[in-house]
Amino acid sequence: SYELTQPPSVSVSPGQTARITCSGDALPRKYAYWYQQKAGQAPVLVIYEDSKRPSEIPERFSGSKSGTMATLTISGAQVEDETEYFCFSTDSSGNHVAFGGGTKLTVL
Amino acid sequence: QLQLQASGPGLVKPSETLSLTCTVSDASVSSSNFYWAWIRQPPGEVLEWVATIYYNGDTYYKLSLKSRVTISMDTSNNEFSLKLRSVTAADTAVYYCARALKGGDSHLYFDYWGQGTLVTVSS
To answer: A42, B113: Cβ pair inside 8 Å?
Structure first.
């Protein structure tokens, strides 16, 4: 099976930049996707195909990728951004998909 | 706005069949533009893709579950369903239904998710 690795937690103060990483061996060749999940709610796609942002997602959310690591950046993090984020991608063959373990973002 | 609502029993006995239905609003499961999927998350564990179905009936299953899982579609009611047979405690999870799109690299990703429903396997 394929694994994507995320840090369990990231903390920033309001207004600071939060960076959440996701590492995986196939990321140089495969797109990364990012989801936001608030407690008791459906996951929401915030970044697709490494760096594209759905129209309804605030501009402070951005994505990038370098080598085996994808990064979700929240510029000027707000208290409302405090929640869980997880990444998603596929292995090199495309036959196995994987979700990262999730990162709890704390903004305080 | 697209909505997906998963429904089904919250408690299933070991060795029995887990059955869930996802009702879709504001999108057609018959559309060739979309795929439809089930994803689950056992307590304290990572999300796990379970199965996907396409409008033409093509189905895709996680290899380790393939022998026990069936995904199907009911176009008249605009819904799709999951059946997981011979369940054990390891199948206890929050089950999500989701819409999937084909990305630029031809691999699927999930753009809209339902809220999820907890299914507990216990006697």
So the answer is: yes
